[in-house]
Amino acid sequence: MALLDNLLTLHRVDSQVRALRTRVTSAETYFNAQEKQLALLARQRTELETQIKQLQANVHALELDQAEATGRVEKLRAELNTSTNDKQYKAILNELKSLELHRDEVVKRAVEEMQRSEDTKKRLETHDATIVERKKVREVAKAQLDECMKDVGERLAELERERERAADLVPDRERKLFNLIADETEGEAMAEITVVSLRHREFACGACNIEVPFETFARLSSNSDAAVQCKACRRILFLSETSRADSSKDSKDKGSKDKDSKDKDSKDKDSKEKAAIARDKAKFEKTKKL
Ligand SMILES: [Zn+2]
User: Fold this and answer.
1) Which pTM does this prediction carry?
2) How many whole angstroms from 239 Cα to the centroid of ligand 1?
3) How far is the CA of 135 from the centre of ligand 1 (A)?
4) Which CATH entry fits the domain spanning 3-168: 1.10.287.1490, 1.10.150.20, 3.40.640.10, 1.10.540.10?
């Protein structure tokens, strides 16, 4: 088989391999994103638990402080009743007042810390609900990935072997070139030459629409063993079977017909060209939609 035919076979298999790989990769990416989310949620949960423990420890310490102050207040009140002189009475009364102020402050802070602890517990509950939901999403993502691997895995391995066989039929230099452009263009290494007008010798790259010189068209019409690249997008150019047949018919026709039949012939060709352009256009639109 000619080089371009082998390259086209490689291109066909390569595109299928790429499409399947993309399916697997996006399923993997989605699943990994869920795993990452869950890991983050788990870290946040640990932080919330630590906060709750700290708040509860604070409350406990304040409660001890409050109990101690209460004991001391009771003791001072007893002392107040048994005070023997005015000076002693006033001193005890002052201490009692400041102690009571301190106790009120401790109670106030304990209530605040308790409230914060309750709030954090509620946040933890909400957080746990989020984790439950996220785990469900992760399960769905895992099932999708498993299904994708089951569907695609075997076919992908098969296609990869087929791709290897196809690549073996292409010489080193052209294979490297193909791989390079296929990577650059995400699997669109080949571009069909669009015949804009055979009569006016106008041709274009089917991928980027930039004009292709007549020499390239002529070279590919007579020789399928050359890898010629589009000057603009670097894709490897090829001619469809129809274009190749048309061009050889065109060269055979030349000179062998009288003027009338030539006119008729060119009219035929015009309508053929129009049909071909319409076909190419439809193909282009289709590709664009993909
Ligand atoms: Zn191009």
Assistant:
1) 0.61
2) 13
3) 47
4) 1.10.287.1490
